[in-house]
Specification:
Order of helices and strands of chain B: EEEHHEEEEHEHHHHHHHHHHEEHEHEHEE
Strand order of the largest sheet of chain B: 2-1-4-5-6-7
Radius of gyration of chain B: 43 Å
Strand content of chain A: under 5%
Number of helices of chain B: 16
Distance between the termini of chain B: 34 Å
Order of helices and strands of chain A: HHH
Shape of chain A: flat
Structural class of chain B: alpha/beta
Shape of chain B: elongated
Helix content of chain A: 55-70%
Helix content of chain B: 55-70%
Number of strands of chain A: 0
Number of helices of chain A: 3
Largest sheet of chain B: 6 strands, antiparallel
Number of strands of chain B: 14
Oligomer: heterodimer
């Protein structure tokens, strides 16, 4: 089901990159399907994200 | 928010609806459908059809065991014994580009029972078929449990009566046990639960990855393990803090009401005023005593050192005084200067310019042996003399200062005891007070007051403990972060895992932020929307002042002067409040779901009917409303309001009463 407008509005306000927002949306869409096996698909999504958006060297850990 | 619409309902052999369908008016400016039917025709059955389809329950049937079976009676009577009849209801929902068909079907076998034919239940099935309008070829069909999940996201059964509204059952809306259910359902519908699930899954992944990272570095593993424990503690403490604050707010609200009631009662007002002053005095004295204890600790620390050093201070001062009186301080001759003359084999005396021969050097050496103090030392001793004198003087004042402190403590304690004693007296007087007036039971209120004060104390204790735990846990997590940072810098091989953990943490933080923002805004949004709609529906403009919905989602109506009056609402006002609350929940949940209302104006008095009908018409511009009226309810005034905007359909039973006419076949 579509993710609610409320969530999408709040997501758009987060101080993270557009790529990370897209990743978070993809995660929520998977959650929405109600998957019991989330680990592998989530890991793949994150790895794809990291491959397209390699972190800057020397960045400060949160 | 674009509305979610019930586009169509299809029946197959379902009760008096038989086989047919109803298309609803989803295309017009107003998404308004009016179905008119006499009582007993099938209005409530239509509501039951919807709930049976979605939840496999006909919620409007009082006793399912003694109700007629589902299959249409005429179909059962016509069928041969042994035939299997399929009953189904399909509900088509439109949500943006999505078309969702909820279909429930059940088989019934026809049997003979005495002279009658009846049925026995067979297997049932439930599906949700989801099609994107832009991609008709790829319909996703979900079965049973997965289909139930889809239902829950639109029409959570826990609050079904907020979508499929029976105007005759208003009491259920405001029952205390409903509020927690409403709260949980609102969070579910607004997908706050979705966020929580996502956060939980990502947290599990983070933990798993941290274990991987720490596999060859057990020190890191220990740190991650400790960090997880601290996070769990932090989560618990935050929940505890939230619960404590809710309890605190509730207790404070109750105490305010009680105090207001008590202070409004003339015979005890002076006691109330005195009690308020005494409570302020006790609070102030508590603070003074805390300050006193701090001062006393400083005093003890200072004098422990001072008194310990006293003999040595005295001895040192005596030494200095002795050297002063013997002329050694300041020395007439500088010892260092004499030593310099000897060491440098000076030729002449710097004072008198006389030559220094061997005899002079012997004399100088004898002088040096006599002099015990250099001028540098002498100056130093003279400097510290005044300090020593001051310290000794202060040490002598020990007894006097101690007496002063003792007296102060006695004084503060006595004042505190006096105030507390008088408070106790007043509390006792009030809790045994025999009110002459029947309008206020002082002793009962006092007991309530004591109860709520204890609850407030308990809540404050919980808050204090939670805040302390939160501070400690946060600090420990930060410290562990720093330690982990140090360790992981050394491990190049685990960079990818580290990056994944970083992304996971960022997303968890993001989802938590979204969830907190939505939750905090939602309750106040529901409250203000409920008030706005309620106020627009009610003709009385000088009676109602506000509506309050607390964190537990309990609803209270206040008069203009701040008196609670939820229990005093008329049937019409209750209906208006139920509508307002329902619509507010829909709005706040982020899903603009339709409303199906049986007897929408049944309990509304005539003079308010038009007003309420107009408000519902206005609402239908943005939200689908399907209303089931009796002909009496659908008065000419209401008809006039809806005539150009609603899709109107009349339902009536066939002459043999076996099937509803007015349904499309």
């Amino acid at each position: 089901m579509p993710i609610s407008e409320k969530i999408m509005n709040e997501l758009s306000k987060l101080p993270v990159s557009e790529a990370e927002k897209k990743l978070m949306t993809d995660i929520l869409s998977h959650e929405d399907i109600g998957t019991a096996h989330y680990s592998a698909p989530y890991e793949q999504l994150i790895k794809n994200y990291l491959s397209d958006n390699p972190p800057k060297k020397g960045g400060k850990k949160k | 928010m674009s509305p979610i619409l019930i586009d169509r309902i299809e029946f197959e052999n379902y009760r008096q609806y038989g086989t047919g369908h109803i298309n609803f008016g989803v295309d017009g400016k107003h998404k308004l459908d009016v179905l008119i039917a006499q009582n007993g025709t099938g209005k409530t059955t239509l509501l039951n059809a919807i709930t049976w389809c979605l939840y496999q329950k006909e919620h409007q049937i009082a006793d399912t065991k003694s109700a007629l079976p589902l299959p249409n009676k005429a179909v059962v009577n016509k069928a041969k014994v042994g035939t299997v009849i399929t009953v189904s209801v399909k509900l088509r929902i439109l949500d943006g580009d999505l078309i969702i068909d909820f279909t429930r079907s059940q088989e019934f076998k026809v049997i003979k029972q005495g002279k009658q034919q009846t049925v026995i239940d067979g297997p049932a099935r439930f599906t949700a078929a989801i099609t994107d309008k832009n991609d008709f070829k790829n319909t996703v069909v979900k079965n049973e449990q997965d289909a139930d999940i889809v239902v829950k996201q639109y029409f959570d059964e826990a609050i079904f009566n907020f979508y499929f509204f029976d105007g005759e059952k208003l009491k259920e809306f405001f029952a205390d046990e409903r509020s927690q259910v409403v709260r949980n359902s609102v969070f579910n519908i607004s997908q706050v639960t979705l966020l929580e699930n996502a956060t939980n899954h990502l947290s599990s992944m983070r933990y798993a990855h941290s274990r991987k990272l720490g596999k060859n570095a057990p020190d890191i593993q220990k740190l991650y393990d400790e960090q997880e424990e601290e996070r769990a503690l932090l989560k618990q403490a935050r929940q505890s803090l939230s619960d404590g604050k809710i309890a605190q707010k509730r207790a404070e609200e109750e105490l305010e009401i009680i105090n207001k009631a008590l202070s409004g009662y003339e015979p005890i007002r002076h006691y109330q005023n005195e009690r308020a002053e005494l409570e302020a005095t006790v609070r102030m004295l508590k603070e003074e005593l805390a300050q006193f204890r701090s001062d006393r600790a400083d005093f003890i620390r200072r004098y422990t050192i001072l008194l310990n050093l006293y003999p040595r201070l005295q001895h040192t001062l005596a030494l200095i005084d002795q050297k002063e009186s013997s002329g050694e301080l300041p020395p007439a001759i500088d010892k260092d200067q004499v030593k310099k003359l000897i060491d440098n084999h000076a030729k002449t005396c710097p004072l008198c310019d006389g030559a220094l021969d061997a005899a002079a050097f012997v004399h100088l050496q004898e002088l040096l042996d006599k002099l015990s103090v250099s001028s540098h030392t002498s100056n130093y001793l003279k400097e510290i003399k005044s300090t020593l004198e001051r310290e000794i003087e202060e040490a002598k004042q020990y007894k006097q200062k101690k007496e002063k402190l003792t007296q102060r403590e006695r004084d503060l304690t006595a004042r505190e005891e006096k105030a507390k004693g008088r408070l106790k007296e007043i509390n006792s007087i009030l809790s045994n007070f025999d009110s002459e007036s029947k309008q206020i039971d002082v002793s009962k209120l006092e007991n309530k007051r004591t109860t709520w004060q204890n609850k407030l104390k308990s809540a404050m204790k919980t808050i204090g403990a939670a805040e302390s735990t939160i501070t400690t846990a946060k600090k420990r997590i930060e410290d562990l972060d720093a330690e982990i940072e140090t360790f992981t810098k050394k491990i190049d091989a685990y960079n990818e895992t580290k990056q994944i953990i970083s992304v996971l943490e960022s997303m968890i933080e993001g989802f938590d932020t979204i969830k907190e923002n939505i939750m905090s805004g939602m309750r106040s949004e529901i409250e203000s929307t409920t008030w706005a709609i309620f106020d627009s529906m009610i003709w009385k403009k000088n009676t109602f002042g506000s509506i309050d919905i607390n964190d537990a989602y309990e609803i209270t109506v206040y008069s203009k002067d701040g008196t609670r009056m939820t229990g005093s609402l008329s049937a019409t006002e209750q209906m208006a409040l139920a509508y307002a609350y329902t619509l507010a929940i829909h709005r706040a949940s982020g899903k603009n779901c339709p409303l199906v209302i049986d007897s929408p104006l049944g309990r509304v008095s005539d003079d308010n009917r038009e007003n309420m009908a107009k408000v519902l018409k206005e609402i239908s511009k943005d939200k689908q409303i399907i209303m089931l009226f009796t002909p009496d309810e659908y008065s000419s005034a209401v008809k006039h309001i809806y005539k150009d905007v609603a899709t109107v359909r009349e339902l009536k039973l066939s002459s043999d009463e076996s099937v509803v006419e007015g349904v499309d076949r």
